[in-house]
Amino acid sequence: MVNNDEALLVTGSAGFIGFHLSKKLLETGYAVVGVDNLNPYYDVKLKRARLDILKANEDFSFYELDIQDLPGLKDIFKQHRVVKICNLAAQAGVRHSLKDPFSYQRSNIEGFLNLLELAREYKVGNFVYASSSSVYGKNTKSPYSVEDRVDNPISLYAATKKANELMAHAYSHLFEIPCTGLRYFTVYGPWGRPDMALFLFADAILKKRPINVYNYGEMRRDFTYIDDIVDGTIRAIERPAPYEIFNLGNSDSVALLDFIRIIEEELGQEAEKNMMPLQPGDVPETVADIRRSRELLGFNPRTPLREGIRKFISWYRGYYGIDDL
Asked: What residue stretches are annotated with the NAD-dependent epimerase/dehydratase domain (predicted)?
């Protein structure tokens, strides 16, 4: 049975950003079709808990499906009138790409191509996808601008994200598909991924375990709160363009040790720190030039770092029931 109501397809809808994006889209009146393969890269129970919240909305339809499965994706397009796609499904993680490179090839390349083909076949009105700040690789110019050359990735993950941008450009040119890539910068917040710094640090400190501090603390990151990322993503979804790339970051580089200090202050506990060398695939600093995103999207990140960390910790304590620790 075909659903003739217009819908927006969000892949990776059980993921951190995909969950928050889907939730906000539903709250603002969109019908959302979610796709996620619920892979075990991190705790599947966390993904299912996010999905339980989304499934409470009658305008959300969910399919447990891998984007490598082209016939399965086609069935979804036959059942729903998908008018826009936001592809957030990908094998995530810079360090994991050194351990399991083929999972990145399958999801981030083959799966991405499947979605571009469906966008072409069904004449989708906008194709928005997650790129990454990691594409800047060995770029030493700061802040990172979308006008910089990004030909020096230092991880396979980054290389696949750069490949996505090139593939989208080709399809946009050949088939007149509006395509917008979003280079996300270190996203954090409630329901975050367990492999990300804030989650790892808060979890270890609360459980009185040491934390690993890479590059001996000489790291800086452009931490961007999830609500600001979702706002920028929706602005891109609602602004089809022939081909665009945007940085979505906070445009403020924060020292890693300052980041840890705020977490310690908010938890009321000091961390035991293992000072470690820079890891393969990591870069010492990221910071986004968001002038173009401000100008064309009206993107304006508003969440102070301490406030965002406080909201994450509040969620973490509640979700894991560890207020007494």
From this structure: 9-249
**Residues with active-site annotation:** 157
Cα R_g (the chain), whole angstroms:
19
- Please write the tens of the pLDDT for every residue from 135-193: 999 888 999 999 999 999 999 999 999 999 999 999 999 999 999 999 999 999 999 99
Contact by Cβ (8 Å): 162, 150: yes
- Residue 325 predicted with pLDDT over 50: no
Residue 3 has pLDDT above 80, yes or no: no
For residue 253, the tally of other CB atoms under 10 A from its CB is: 18
pTM value is 0.96
Cα separations in angstroms, 14 against 142, 145, 146, 226, 324: 33, 30, 28, 15, 29
- pLDDT score of 35: 98
Residues 324/277, Cβ–Cβ less than 8 Å: no
Proportion of the chain above pLDDT 90, given as a percent:
91
Helix, strand, coil percent content, the chain, rounded in steps of 5: 45, 20, 35
Question: Distance (Å, rounded) from C-alpha 76 to C-alpha 265?
Answer: 47
Contacts for 195 with CB less than 8 Å, ≥ 6 apart:
41, 42, 92, 93, 96
Instruction: Name the CA dihedral angle for 88, 231, 75, 172, rounded to a multiple of 10 degrees.
Output: -70
Name 191's bridge partners: none
What domains does the chain contain, in order, with CATH numbers?
3-186+225-248 (3.40.50.720), 188-221+252-287+303-320 (3.90.25.10)
H/E segment holding residue 244: strand 243-248
